[in-house]
Amino acid sequence: MSRTEAPIPSHARPQAHHQAYPHDLIQAAGELAGLPELPRRGRGLSLRTLIVLRWLAVIGQTSAILTAYFALHFPLPLWECLTVIGAGVAMNLATMARARRIDGSLPDGPRTAAQLGFDILQLATLLALTGGLANPFCLLLVAPVTIAAAALPARQAVILGIMALIAVGFLFSWSLPLPWRLHEHLELPGLYRLGLGLALVTGVLFTAGYAWKVAADADKLELALATTQDVLQREQRLAALGGLAAAAAHELGTPLATIQVVAKEMLRDAAPDSPAAEDAALILQQAERCRAILKQLSAQPEEGDALFADIGLKALLEEVAEPHRGFDLDFDIALKIPSGQDAPRLRRLPEIVHGLSTLVENAADFATARVQLTAVVDAGWIEIDIVDDGPGFASEILPRLGEPYVTSRPQAKARRALAAQIASATRRPARRERRAPPPPVTAPIAPSQGGMGLGFFIARTLLERSGAKVSVGAGDAAKGQPGGARVSVRWPRQVLEVTASAMEGDGT
Predict the structure, then answer these.
(1) pLDDT digits (tens, 9 = 90+) for 291-301
(2) How would you write 43-74 as a 3-class SS string?
(3) Which residue spans within 392-457 are E strands per DSSP?
C-alpha cells in the first residue's frame, strides 16, 4: 500500500474565488428549493456557441418585429420590443467581452445556465408585449429548456425548466393584446388559451425529458468507451513492463550469482557469530530472495502444475504473507465464513498471488507493528481486506492513486532500516580489536523492493484482470489505531471459487 499508489476514479476540483454572477442565483435558488446536486452529466456549452445562438435569436426577433410593424402594419409597441431585443444585444456584447478574457471555446456549465436563464426572461418579456400565449412564437420557450436538459447538470436544468413553466403561467395571466390588422381585434377564447398553455407545458416537459434521456445514454456510452480505452492503455503499459521484467531477470542472473558466491566465501572466512558473519548471512538471504523473485518473473504460464491449480482461502493468505513473517511486524489472518460452511477453494491464478503479495508488501512497508489480512465470504462475494496501522494514504495522493510512477515510499521504514544497516557496515574500522560492539539485533527488517510507484498500478491491473474490484480507504482508526490504510479486493464468488464438480473433473 504505497501511500501514493492506487486509484480511484473522481477527481477533486478546487473551487476558485469568483464574483457574483447570475449562475450563483440559480444555484442559490436550487438550494432553497431543496433540490439535490445530482452527478454532473454535462459540461454546458462554450461561450462562443452561446454567442452565435443569441445572435441568431436577435436577428430572428428583429426581423419578425420589423416585418409585423412595417410590412403587415400591425400596431405593436415597437420601441418597447426593440428595447427588449437591445437587452439581448447588450448581453451578447458583454459575453463577447468576457470570452476574450478567458478561453471561450471551453464548456462552462454555470455560465451556460445563466445565459439560458436570461434568454427565457428576455423571450417571455417579448412575448408578453406581443400577445402572450396567442403569439405563435411562444413555442420558442421550449428551446432553452431543451438545451439545458441536454447540456447541464440536473439542478440547473430543473431550475431553468421551472423558470419556463412560470413564464407560461405569467403569459396566460397577463399579456398585451395580440397585434392584428388595423380596425380588427383578434380575441382567443380563454379555454383555447388554456389549451395552448397546457400544450406548451407538455412540450417543455416532453422535449426536455427526451433530451435528458438521449444525453444520459450518450454519456453512458462515452463513459464506457473511456473506460475501455483506459483498460487497454493499462494492458499495454503492463505488457511493456512484463517485457522489461523478463529482460531484467535475464540480465540480473549473472551478477546475482557472483554476489552469492562472494557472500558464501565471506561467510566461510568469518568467525562464527561475528558481525561479518551476520552481514554475509543477510546478503545471502536477500540474494536468495532476489533469485526467487527473478525466477517468478521469468517463469512461463505453461510451467504451472495442475496439482496447484486451486488453493484454500486461508492458504492463499498465508502464502502472500509468508515472505514478510519473521521481521518486525505481526501478521493477523482471519476468515469470516457463514456458519456451517467450509472455507472455499480458489483458483490459484498467478495474477492474484502477485497482486495480493504486492499489496501485502506495501502494507508491511508502511505498517508500524501490525498488518491484518481478513477474508470475508458470503453467498455472492469473496472479499479480502488488507489493513495496516501506518500513517494511511496521503490526501494529496488519493486523486492519482493507481497511476504508474506515483509514490511516496523513499523514506519508508524498510528502506530506512536497510540504509542504516549499510551505513553501519561502512563505518566499521579496519582493525577488529577496535570495533565498537554492534547494537543489539531484535529482528531483521525486510528491505522494500518498491519505490518507483509501479507496485499498486501493477497489482491493481492484475487483480482487475481476474475480475476483482479494488478500493482503498482508511484503516481501523475508529478502533483506537493511529490511522492506517485499508485496501479491499472483492471478487464475485463464482469467478474465483473452484466448485466441487470442477475439482472432481480435474482429478479424473
Answers:
(1) 888 777 766 54
(2) CCEEHHHHHHHHHHHHHHHHHHHHHHHHHCCC
(3) none
